[in-house]
Structure formats: structure tokens, C-alpha cells
Amino acid sequence: MSAEENPDDAGLLGRMRKGDADAFTTLYRRHQGPVYRFALQMTGSRAVAEDVTQEVFMALIRNPESYDAARGPLASYLYGVARNTVHRSLERDRFCAPESEEESAAPDNALADLTRQETLVEVRRAILALPANYREVVVLCDLHEMSYEDAAEVMGCAVGTVRSRLNRARNLLAAKLTRTGANPARCLA
């Protein structure tokens, strides 16, 4: 594929700044999924995740100059905007109980699928029960497979902080899942 068929983010952002709607659409399609999943995994609410995703891309449209390529890739910038938006949302809604939005589709009636689904629900609940600073490092590093360096850039902290928070978060998760009897190893099989 040529660069014209698959332009990089910098090229697309340059075209977007000049008013090219197709360039924005390409950027949106490229980055919307990960931003949405991050917000969903941080909040546990599809509605909030949709709002966060919309806000992230509206911020990019309103002020594309706020992204500085010298500070890192566009994806890190978008995660950073999503992170800040999620934190504002969590702070605003901290007295409200999180919505329970479990998947309504039943598995193929196989006991193994049902057990795996129940374990996934327990893991999701355990992640959502973590304090926000631990939850975000688990979401970024474990669920989004982001490197420590990239997560540190998104979170605005040192790599050592990411490592220590991740270690603490994993220990908290293991303790929570042990108490509930969930076996997270079954989720990954």
C-alpha cells in the first residue's frame, strides 16, 4: 500500500487542518475504537464511553493545534484527552452508582462458555472497583497492551510510577478475584 492509500496520522491531521473532512473521517475510524474501549473500560458505561469518544474527537476538530507531534503520537494525545474527560465524568458522577450493562446475548448454552462469561463479568466488576489511578493503568497496559512508556505519556507521570501502580493494581485485582472465587486465567484461555 502506498502512503497515498494509507496516509499517516501527521499527514491526515495536516489535511484536516486545511478543512479536508475525509482526512478527519479516516483519523476517526482509525482511533475511535481504542478511545471508546478505553472509556468503556474506565467507566463501565456505554453511554459515558460514547460521550467521551465524541468529546475527544470534537476537541480535535475544535483545536487541532493543541496536538504537538514532538510530544508523542496522535494516539497518545487522544488517550490523554479521553483520560481527562473520563476523570471529569467520574468526578461529576461519583455519587451515582455505575450502570450495570452486561451483555444480554447468551452464549451457545455450553457450560464452558457460561463459566467464561461469568468470569469475565467478575473481572470487569473487579477492574471497575479499582481506584481510578489503578484502573487506568490496568486498562492502558493490560487491556490495551500499551507500553509502560506510552502509558506514562498518557498519564503524565514517570515510567516507574506506571510500573508500581500496575503492580499494586494487579495485586488488588488478584485479591478481589480470589474473594469472589473468579479465576481470571479462564478468561485468557
- Which bin fits the share of residues in helices? over 70%
Strand percentage lies at under 5%
Largest sheet: none
Q: How many separate domains make up the residues?
A: 2
Give me some keywords for this one.
189 residues, mainly alpha, Rna Polymerase Sigma Factor, Chain: A, Arc Repressor Mutant, subunit A, elongated
What is the structure about, briefly put?
With 189 residues, the protein is mainly alpha-helical.
Strand and helix map with partners:
Layout: H1 9-17, H2 21-43, H3 46-62, H4 74-92, H5 111-129, H6 132-143, H7 148-155, H8 159-180, H9 184-188
Helix pairs in contact: 1-2, 2-3, 2-4, 3-4, 4-7, 5-8, 6-8, 7-8
